[in-house]
Amino acid sequence: MTKTHRICAALALAFGIALSSLPAGATDAPKSDMCLACHGGSFDALRDKTKDWKDEFGDAVQPHQYLDPNAANPHQGEKVVPECTGCHEEHPMPIPSGYKPKEASLSMCYGCHHMEHFQPCSDAGCHEK
């Protein structure tokens, strides 16, 4: 186990989660705060790390957005951190040697951004006024 894995395991235990109690293929997805313990520290820190990320078309996109599921425009409501597993594959703990996760998906984004771009609808012309 690497130093990083030991630190992540300690943080997970601090969240009250015993790694040995997580069965392989557990049906309950981890909460975002557990993921952030190893992947960024905070959602804002993760957003800062991915501010120059490019989508599959080469366009600069911030993939880590606050989303309020109760707001008419989910980007303009409360600052709610979405579940990481909405886009990312949950990995086993401890992470096996040589493990390579699937690439994250923008499928959740494309549920609303159905023309696979991130311009406001008023600018893109995808909805009539």
From TrEMBL:
* Cofactor(s) in the UniProt record: heme c
What Pfam family does this protein match (any one)?
Answer: Cytochrom_c3_2
Task: Please indicate if the UniProt record lists Metal-binding as a keyword.
Answer: yes
What is the scientific name of the source organism? Sutterella parvirubra YIT 11816
* GO MF term list: metal ion binding
Predominant place of localization: other
- Cellular component, GO annotation: cell envelope
Instruction: Read off the InterPro entries from this record.
Output: Multihaem_cyt_sf (IPR036280), Tetrahaem_cytochrome (IPR012286)
Keyword list (alphabetical) reads: Electron transport, Heme, Iron, Metal-binding, Signal, Transport
- Location in or out of the cell: Cell envelope
Residue ranges of domain Tetrahaem cytochrome in the record: 29-114
What is the name listed in the Swiss-Prot or TrEMBL entry for this protein? Tetrahaem cytochrome domain-containing protein
Q: Which domain of life is it from?
A: Bacteria
Give the signal peptide as a residue range, or say none if absent: 1-26
